[in-house]
Amino acid sequence: MKLEISEKFKKLIVDTGKELYKQNLTLGTWGNISVLDSETGLVYIKPSGMDYNDINPEDIIVVDKKGNTIEGLRKPSIEMPMHLSIYNVRKDVGAIVHYHPIYSSVLAVTGFSLPGICEDFVQIVGEKVLCAKYALPGSDELAENAVASLGNRNAVFLLNHGTLCVGKDMKEAMKVCYVVEKTAHIYILSKSVGKCRIIPEEDIKIMQDFAKKSYGKQ
Ligand SMILES: [Zn+2]
């Protein structure tokens, strides 16, 4: 059986890369993006070492969940093991964005976690974001550490490195990217003003239930 390749997903990777760049959420070639086609089980991923502004749909690599190239002439992102490990463990995830933004990287270089201090954050990201143990970029160890610290939340920091966000689709994953970076910014600034209040666990639970079941639904 020949698996159908979707041009729509290739274009999504190209467009999302340009958006990350335009919004100053990453620099040059750094970071990587992938999307899962739930119908075929194929993953579309950014090529390694290419500037976001130079990537065209034909540069996108299509792989299966074991990392075998199905289509594409370029080398996939070196963080492909991290992307595939997440898709293999988190069945609710359909898109992954790994980026190198300023404020969440401040937390990622200190090894701090980001607590649940803002309502939008606890609703769509999780009760907190943890920092994964250090491992070299592209290593299987980094993939394992990222999966462990991501847990069932939608973002994780990578020590001395950057941030990774997930969502059921690319729109959600990008929303998580913006909210994590905004919350990290607020958290760091709040430290210069005083102590910030962390939202109590029971309130977080209520907000998460609301976001899942009712928010934005007719
Ligand atoms: Zn990176």
Structure description:
With 218 residues, this protein is of the alpha+beta class. It has a single domain, classed as L-fuculose-1-phosphate Aldolase (3-Layer(aba) Sandwich). It is 41% helix and 17% strand. The protein contains seven helices and ten strands. The chain has helices at residues 7-22, 80-89, 102-110, 119-124, 140-150, 170-193, 201-213, and strands at 32-37, 42-45, 61-63, 69-71, 95-99, 114-115, 128-129, 131-132, 155-158, 162-167. Helix 2 runs parallel beside helix 5 (140-150) and helix 3 (102-110) packs across helix 6. The longest helix is centred in the C-terminal third of the chain and has 24 residues, at 170-193. It is globular, with a radius of gyration of 17 Å. Residues 30-31, 98, 100, 137, 161-162 line the site of zinc ion.
Q: For the largest beta sheet, what order do the strands appear in spatially? A: 4-3-2-1-5-10-9-8
Name the helix and strand elements from N-terminus to C-terminus, one letter apiece.
HEEEEHEHEHEEHEEHH
The CATH class is Alpha Beta
C-alpha-based Rg, rounded:
17 Å
Strand content is 15-25%
